[in-house]
Amino acid sequence: MNLTESKVFLVNSGSLKDVRIFSRDVFEKINLNNELKEELVLAIAEAAQNIVKHAYAGVEDTNDKMQIKISVNNEKLEIGFFDKGKPVEENNIQHRNIDDVKPGGLGTFFIKQIMDEVVFKKDQKKWVNHLVLTKNLSNN
Amino acid sequence: MAYNVKEEGNIAIVYLDGEIDMDVTEKAKELIMPLIEAKKEVHLNLKDVQYMDSSGISVLIESHQKAMELGTKVILKEISKSVLKVIMMAKLEQILNLE
Fold first, then answer.
1. Of B21, B59, B82, which has the smallest distance from its Cβ to A45's Cβ?
2. What parts of chain B have a pLDDT lower than 50?
3. What per-residue confidence (pLDDT) applies to A1?
4. How big is the A-B interface in CB pairs under 8 Å?
């Protein structure tokens, strides 16, 4: 099944619920098991949270938007995140050591556990950051 | 996120309901931390929590560590399947008190 859907959200923590609703609605249209669906929803919500928390760190209120685009093409799932926050330095995106138990630093760890590939692309003029998460659905 | 708290002697049972994400973590901390600071044994009932992200997991870690520091404990009760999965993904099943 091929499909592309995208939606724009305000950059704030109140949007994260809407991000999950959007993601679940899209995944309802794809034949995936429920466990995988919820893992993918978590990965998407964590990436959106990273935009709010990190790309917009220190910004109290903003009318800026972020866009999330979910595409499935020949069983390859690609999820794009676009924002106009602070440019992300890919080398700074590290999750904490999982054995060093402390609050924080788990979102990126979850994303990397769930997805096959996590890549920041420098291909956007309209946006500042473009994160692409991919997963091959034929293995699931 | 909705909640209900019952206190029985030195035990505070906190029933959480809904989805726990970054948007509600402050509310969750404001609910749980004073109970720990009052040195209550806190039982967090998670049977009605359908979703928890890394922010929610951070609240669980922070609560657990604060309780240990104050000589009490936080016990996670009736953990829903989806929350248990995230706890295991974070490799915390041997660290947090799960019942």
1. B21
2. none
3. 78
4. 64
What CA–CA distance (Å, rounded) separates B2 from A37?
25
CATH, residue B10 = 3.30.750.24
Mean pLDDT by 10 residues, chain A (140 residues): 95 97 95 93 97 91 96 96 90 71 84 95 88 91
B55 touches chain A (CB under 8 A): yes
Q: What are phi and psi of A39, to 5 degrees?
A: -65, -45
Identify which of B21, B54, B95 has the shortest CB distance to residue A101.
B95
Residue A125 dihedral angles phi and psi, to the nearest 5°: -95, -35
Q: How many domains does chain B have?
A: 1
What is the per-residue pLDDT across A63-96, written as a single tens digit (0 to 9) for each? 999 999 999 999 999 999 999 999 987 776 677 6
Assess: ipTM above 0.85: yes
| CATH number of this structure's domain A3-139 | 3.30.565.10
**Could you report how far apart the first and last alpha carbons of chain A are, in Å?**
15
A45 CB neighbours in chain B (<8 A) are 21, 53
What pLDDT sits at residue A8?
98
Expressed in percent and rounded to 5, the helix, strand and coil fractions of chain B are 40, 35, 25
Is B53–A45 a contact, with Cβ atoms under 8 angstroms apart?
yes
Measured CA to CA in angstroms, residue B94 lies from A23, A30, A72, A113, B88 at distances of 31, 35, 37, 19, 9
Give pLDDT, residue A89.
78
Residue-number span of the structural domain to which B31 is assigned: 2-98
